[in-house]
Design brief:
By secondary structure, this protein is mainly β. Helix content is 3%, strand content 35%. It is built from 4 helices and 59 strands. The strands form 15 sheets. A 5-stranded antiparallel beta sheet has the order 1-4-9-6-7, with no helix packed on it. Strands 2-3-10-5-8 form a 5-stranded antiparallel beta sheet, with no helix packed on it. A hairpin with a 4-residue loop joins β41 (535-539) and β42. The radius of gyration is 28 Å and the shape is elongated. The chain starts with 51 loop residues before the first strand and ends with a helix. It holds the Pfam family GO-like_E_set. It comes from Streptomyces ambofaciens. InterPro entries: Gal_Oxase/kelch_b-propeller, Gal_Oxidase_central_sf, Glyoxal_oxidase_N, GO-like_E_set, Ig-like_fold, Ig_E-set.
């Protein structure tokens, strides 16, 4: 929405008797404008105008100057960098009660100014005052285009976060050149119209609705990838079925939500428990997988192969790439800001843990040789959750699978360029966060991570209700305890009963929703047993959970949940210890889709976006926000590339200009779902856009113009260790005792604590969990399940015989 020109202050017409006061008296804001001294006309006590202050950081040469080349009136502010190594300079509204505009939590504000620039490296930067934490960087809202003549820039803020009472803003210059600005305005956006009446039942309006689809998933998929054509790739490989492995029968399927149909895809290798990530061109990189199941006697564990493939959504085919340098069963996979992929952890071809970091070069379309990849020779475990931070470092959240966490605090920041690991404190009970879930909270600009739940398959206690939140914008980021996970019901073998005490869940799924909240769903109380039926929605603004309708299907080990382009959530899978598989598929309709008509994006001017762009869309009615959500590539509660990137708005009726971040570390290149959301939180159906191109910054280090954060962590710092081949890993790493049953059956090495350590109690637990007939592999019976020695565990003679 274009703003009228600022009216010349009435003070200019004051008689000569009071004219001298113009140098010291504050220039008030107009009736609608919340900015004091918006045109720099009132002088301050020093060399800056009243209510304006110098700000900035880094190694650069600069000048601040009040100039006469004004848009209106007689004054404007010019900020210039004549030399820059790093950092920025900016003229900001003074962070004081007298000058910084008062704001209301949950409201949005339209900001605008007039400017001239001689550099493309200038952006509108926003700070907020937290009543507890004080002043802190909030976000960069808009990159300013080069402009030789006076040009207006306008943008709408996100909703004001909880605890915020004032804001300050201005233009940051982070490249050599100048920005001259004038006539700032700030107006509160009008309150939205009341929410429409809900179109569902009262229960659905409050808690949403689950539907189990009539067509079942034809494959035992444990990997789910939402493709940029709106379809879903479901990867099974052998599906944790050794008979399929021996037969060389490997499967994938492509699900089309529009038609509800599946197409089975030829799959060249056993991609069971591989890593996967979407490349910037929309193809899916699938790395490693299962080279071999554990031996019958349990002396050899799972093995990971070196093979790597790319899946093309257009042809729906796999193509082999060059090999990785090492095997990686259960590897991490994180896309970087330049389109490269970095991967850690997993099991090698000999079942030991891989300490080799791998890097896929987007430019060369291959895995780089080991000597070209920075190595710390660290073992990060299996599926370590490695989240890209907005300065290119990686945050290991502490979420992983199988057993204890890594040594130390269980969470760390990895600096690839510096090749250092800095431990991050605060993660609660780090060794019971096995099969927890971590998610970068909306919006990504806030750089907050939520970690929920978990257990430990080695000791198999009740899964916990722990949640932890970390703010990576803090100079010394530390996890702090979040609210406990809500409790639901748990099926211990005799039907669902309410959870009690500290019972929570492992194997939860987290899904970013277009209204800016997070759905958490699914899970189990113990290692591949005792499903938990509980779903809730986490609100990052209030840091609270709201319990909603639970998925009616069990969703534990090898389950997935992910966002569809129409705003619904799809869940698949469940692979309990008895080796069975749940082929039913559930769809969750959140309450925001039951609030009547939803907004529509009627046109997207351009679907090819570059960093720092302003992109125009048209909508059929007013919207409050828009965002990019990276489509899911999820397995084992892990999707470290999932992110929600806010797009600050400039609104002119049905035309909305979206301001794209200039930082690819904040939004790595690739395909995204673009949602427009109205004031009631109702989202449009997504449009697909492709984000690519060079970072909109002058130098390699200029990404720091988004302000330093996590810049002084006080944890223990580790540099590269001595080169080594691998990390010893026990063949029981999956928490399964292979002396009983086939390789896809998981008799737990440790039974839940409430199961007595007797043959009868253990056999009763196995019977309640439908394990069926279990042959004993070899002569050993470590769990005392075959006292009569007939080679069949839990037979009639075994249960009668006391041991």
């Amino acid at each position: 929405m274009r703003r009228p020109r600022r009216r010349t202050s009435a003070l200019l017409a004051v008689s000569a008797l009071t004219g001298g006061l113009l140098l010291t008296a504050p220039q008030p804001a107009s009736a609608a404008n919340l900015i004091t001294n918006p045109g720099f006309e009132t002088a301050g006590t020093g060399d800056m105008p009243y209510c304006w202050s110098k700000s900035g950081w880094g190694d650069n040469d600069f000048t601040f100057e009040t100039v006469g080349d004004a848009h209106t009136g007689t004054k404007a502010m010019k900020v210039e960098l004549t030399r820059r190594t790093d950092g920025d300079r900016k003229a900001l509204i003074t962070e004081s009660n007298a000058c910084a505009p008062v704001v209301t939590v949950g409201k949005q504000y339209d900001l605008s100014l007039w400017y001239k620039t001689t550099t493309p490296d200038a952006s509108l930067t926003l700070f907020r005052h937290d009543a507890t934490a004080g002043w802190q960087y909030w976000t960069d809202l808009k990159t300013l285009d080069l402009a030789a003549g006076w040009t207006e820039a306008s943008v709408r803020t996100p909703e004001v976060p909880a605890g915020t009472d004032r804001i300050s803003w201005g233009v940051s210059v982070y490249g050599t050149g100048s920005a001259t600005t004038d006539d700032y305005t700030m107006e509160q956006v009008a309150d939205p119209v009341p929410d429409p009446e809900c179109t569902g039942t009262a229960e659905e309006c409050a808690n949403g609705r689950w539907d189990v689809l009539p067509t079942r998933n034809p494959v035992r998929s444990m990997h789910s990838v939402v493709l940029h054509n709106g379809k879903v790739l479901l990867i099974a490989g052998s599906g944790n079925d050794p008979e399929m492995f021996e037969a060389g029968t490997f499967t994938s399927a492509v699900y089309d939500p529009q038609t509800g149909t599946y197409e089975t895809i030829p799959t060249p290798k056993d991609m069971f428990c591989a890593g996967h990530v979407q490349l910037k061109d929309g193809r899916v990189l699938v790395m490693s997988g299962n080279k071999g199941y554990p031996s019958a006697d349990g002396t050899v564990g799972y093995q990971g192969y070196k093979d790597s493939y790319v899946f093309d959504p257009e042809t729906e085919t796999y193509t082999k790439t060059g090999d990785m340098n090492d095997g990686h069963w259960y590897p991490s996979a994180t896309i970087l800001g330049n389109g490269d992929v970095i991967s850690f952890g997993g099991l090698r071809e000999d079942s030991t843990g891989s300490v080799t970091a791998e890097r896929w070069s987007d430019e060369q379309q291959k895995w780089l040789p080991t000597w070209q990849v920075n190595q710390t020779w660290s073992y990060w475990g299996l599926y370590p959750s490695m989240i890209l931070m907005q300065d290119g470092r990686l945050f290991y959240s502490g979420s992983h699978v199988f057993g204890n966490n890594i040594p130390g605090t269980g969470s760390a920041i990895y600096d690839y360029e510096g090749n250092t690991i800095t431990q991050v404190p605060g993660l609660q009970d780090k060794d019971v966060r096995d099969q927890s879930a971590s998610v970068l909270l909306p919006p990504a600009q806030d750089q907050k991570v939520l970690t929920i739940g978990g257990g430990n398959i080695d000791s198999n206690p009740d899964a916990n209700r722990l949640t932890d939140i970390i703010d990576l914008k803090q100079p010394n980021p530390t996890y702090v305890a979040g609210p406990p996970l809500p409790q639901g019901t748990v099926d211990l073998g005799n039907g669902p009963v309410p959870q009690t005490g500290g019972q929570g869940k492992m194997y939860p799924s987290t899904v970013l929703l277009p209204d800016g909240k997070v759905l958490e769903t699914g899970g189990a109380l113990h290692n591949r047993a005792d499903p938990v039926y509980e779903t809730s929605i986490f609100d990052p603004r209030t840091e609270t959970f709201d319990p909603v309708a639970p998925d009616p299907e069990a969703r534990g080990y090898h389950s997935s949940a992910f966002l569809l382009p129409d705003g619904r959530v799809m869940t698949t899978g469940d692979n309990p210890g008895n080796g069975s598989w749940n082929h039913d598929v559930s769809i969750y309709t959140p309450p925001y889709l039951l609030k009547g008509e939803r907004p529509a994006i009627t046109s997207v001017i351009d679907t090819e976006w570059t960093y720092g762009d302003t992109q125009r869309i048209t909508v059929d009615r007013p919207i409050a926000k828009a965002e990019l959500i990276r489509p899911a590539a999820v397995t084992h509660s892990s999707d470290p590339n999932q992110r929600f990137v806010d797009l600050p708005l400039s609104v002119d009726g049905d035309n909305v200009d979206l301001n794209v971040t200039s930082n690819p570390d904040l939004a790595p290149p690739g395909w995204y779902m673009l949602f427009a959301v109205d004031a009631g939180g109702v989202p449009s159906v997504a449009k697909w856009v492709h984000l690519d191109g060079p970072r909109a910054l002058s130098t390699k280090d200029a990404s720091a113009h988004v302000h330093s954060f996590a810049d002084a962590p006080r944890g223990k710092v580790s540099k590269p260790g001595k080169k080594r081949t691998s990390q010893p890993v026990a063949p029981t790493v999956s928490g399964c005792d292979r002396h009983y049953g086939s390789a896809n059956v998981c008799v737990p090495t440790a039974f839940p604590a409430e199961v007595k350590r007797t043959t009868a109690a253990r056999c009763d637990w196995l019977a309640r969990n439908e394990y069926g007939r279990l042959e004993v592999n070899g002569k050993d019976d470590p769990l005392r399940l075959d006292p009569d020695g007939d080679g069949v565990a839990c037979g009639k003679g075994d249960v009668r015989k006391k041991r």
